[in-house]
Amino acid sequence: MTKAEANKISTDEAAIRALIESGNQAHHRRDAAAIAAPYAKDARIFDLAPPLSHHGLDRKELEAWLDTWVGPVDRDSRDFDIAISGDLAFGHGFYRISAESKAGGHAVFWFRATLCLQRSAGEWRIVHEHTSVPFRMDGSFLAATDLEP
Amino acid sequence: MTKAEANKISTDEAAIRALIESGNQAHHRRDAAAIAAPYAKDARIFDLAPPLSHHGLDRKELEAWLDTWVGPVDRDSRDFDIAISGDLAFGHGFYRISAESKAGGHAVFWFRATLCLQRSAGEWRIVHEHTSVPFRMDGSFLAATDLEP
């Protein structure tokens, strides 16, 4: 890899990390438009909740989810590994949500996130996102929302 | 994109689809070595079961899981979208497992899969895999193992 290529990748990685950080800040503000902004229109989203897959970010569902919390929805990102080649990139790491539920109680949970991105008209766009928690294979089939990385 | 570049991507996509299909066949044979073969040694794996993340494929755990079934573990893949740039690729789609449990009963379930790959010494290797089912946000926190794509 030439120095110019290495510099380019480092700039791209910084742009993708900034995209993730902007998402964290948008969660804090409960700003659905800002959360939705980096997603490609036809992004394939494997979400925490059913169904198995969404075609494009569902703004209504996002707003309904944001509305289940009181005050800021704090989302932190940790341990994101990012790889880039040309106009393609992927990243994987963990998110931690900490927020006050309208139903009562303070929720804190970690989940896994994989982001697949493509550069379009000079901007990185999320074309695929996979977020999840594992489930316990002890016969309970319970989502493991109490795990930490 | 030149025609040569397009041909290269089409060859790479065929290689990645073959890797997925080999995994299906290896599941049918309950062949842990063949299932493990395409994973990079330090692959970061977000699995169906806890913990949140594995560093490298856990052969013992895979063998223990394969041993919970009687006869073939049939894994089908569906709707995999694959994107490639240089030595980097990602793919996302669905797997369906159909197998006879030793505990009794025939299990059939779909789950989501995201694969992140890097080419190393001419071979595509899985450097990250994320598999999951969503969970019900109705207060039950139950893994949704009854969904279909």
What series of H and E elements makes up the topology of chain A?
HHEEHEEEE
Please, what is the oligomeric state?
homodimer
Strand content of chain A: 35-45%
Mean pLDDT over the residues of chain A:
96
By CATH, the architecture of chain A is named Roll
Largest interface: A-B, 43 and 43 residues
Distance between the termini of chain A: 33 Å
Query: Structural class per helix/strand content of chain A?
Result: alpha+beta
Number of helices of chain A: 3
**CATH secondary-structure class of chain A:** Alpha Beta
Supply the number of structural domains of chain A.
1
| Main β sheet profile of chain A | 6 strands, mixed
Question: What share of residues of chain A is helical?
Answer: 25-40%
The overall strand count of chain A is 6
**What would you call the shape of chain A?**
globular
Integer-rounded radius of gyration of chain A: 16 Å
What is the CATH fold-level name of chain A? Nuclear Transport Factor 2, Chain: A
Enumerate the spans of chain A where pLDDT stays under 50 for 5 or more consecutive residues.
none
Strand order of the largest sheet of chain A: 2-1-6-5-4-3
List the defining traits of the structure above.
homodimer, 149 residues, alpha+beta, Nuclear Transport Factor 2, Chain: A, 6-stranded mixed β-sheet, 3 helices, 44% strand
